[in-house]
Amino acid sequence: MEAIRRAAVAGSFYPANPQALRQAVARSLGQAPAPCGDALRAPKLLVVPHAGYVYSGEVAARAYALLAPLRWRIRRVVLMGPAHHVALRGLAAPRALAFETPLGRVPVDQAALAAVADLPQVTFSDAAHADEHALEVQLPFLQTVLADGFTLLPLLVGEASPRDVEEVLDRLWGGDETLIVISSDLSHYLPYGEARLRDQRTVQRILSCSAGLRGDDACGAMPLNGALRAAARLGLQPRLLDLRNSADTGGGDPARVVGYGAVAFMAPSRDDGERADDAGADDECAAAGADGAAGAGAAPALGPTLLATARAEIAGALGLPAPTAPTHPGLLEPGASFVTLHDAQGELRGCVGQLEARGPLGDDVRHNALAAAFGDHRFTPLTAEEWPGLQIEVSVLEPLQPMPAATDLEQAARQLHPGVDGVVLAWDGRRSTFLPQVWAGLPDPRDFLRALLRKAGLSADFWAPDIQLWRYGVTVHAEPRHASIH
Predict the structure, then answer these.
(1) What angle do CA 209, 398, 441 make, to 5 degrees?
(2) What are the chain's domains?
(3) Of 101, 261, 409, 460, which is most buried with the most CB atoms under 10 A?
């Protein structure tokens, strides 16, 4: 047995020289925006890509930057990823006692290993780990953002069911001291536009904790499916941090790109008294896991409260009975929102909102719910006959961030983060916006901007150097699609 698992891809996927490696990691982390809102909360689970740093380093850094405030808190990392070189059944652990990179050695957590060694799906294989990059490329980031002395449990996942992975995670979940990291790229070698659309759909499934991903959606689908099952059951709250591909980041061939996404999942409650339901922090995973994670009499989460508030407001205007909407402290905090309605066939039925907070979030949602149902000029007012199939989505907006001036559309498009950014465009008194959800239908940043120009009443080919652009993040709370709602 080799006591140390030596670095296999130093000098190819990342620099082999320690100083150059530190600089590369620091440069990527420096590009990550400062955490704000719910991003300040401690992530329990990260999904990060594993390509060479020139391609995926900045995307991965968006997730690892969240760990800086937790430098001394996280003492163990459970790291899972796919096996690219060796066919495996189940999950393979190493017999090596430590993993080495140019930045030093990280000890394998022997106690954690012992906790899962008796499970039939867990095997040992140093050969599987020897040349594998999916786990190794994560280590320099972890060695940079965490304090010395943290331990590692690296597991490569081959043919394994979501339940197999979830069972392992259940034993290793721990508390604040344990971080779960799933290493996975997204689509592989599709044309740029097709990849954007595929990756956006995959990310939406990740954000809704849908544990049915396939290998052509994400190369780490096996570990990711199990992690998503655990996230849904335990009510983790996901946040999309970045979504790009090799043509966006490293200048790769747009005819054959690889997709990269970074997602953080926050725990629904904190032992230190941090409120789990901060405005903008909840979404579908919290709702999916509420039955299993919330005790009797637990206060409702903000996301379901916002949806119930919007539904009750519309029902009242239609003269229909509706349960009294629950209360939540977040309703009283300043906030800006959009309310989007879809009919029984999933078609858009109305969308109205505010870009900047003008008062309490609860009042904003009530106003926008009524406006979307009865005041969107693109649609006739909602009727009681449409009520049974109506589906509601509430998007809570983060503050607008101005973008640098662009001399042309191409330069502006390169500044956008598809699937992540909501965008406001303004020129000469004209103004339009698209929520991040619009990227699903317009995955090319140039098409996204052209449609935004048309929405503002401008030609799709128009550009002026004094066009102003702002970006903003959104937390989406959505009722389940294709469900009968009464």
Answers:
(1) 55
(2) 4-291 (3.40.830.10), 300-397 (3.30.700.20), 401-474 (3.30.1490.150)
(3) 261
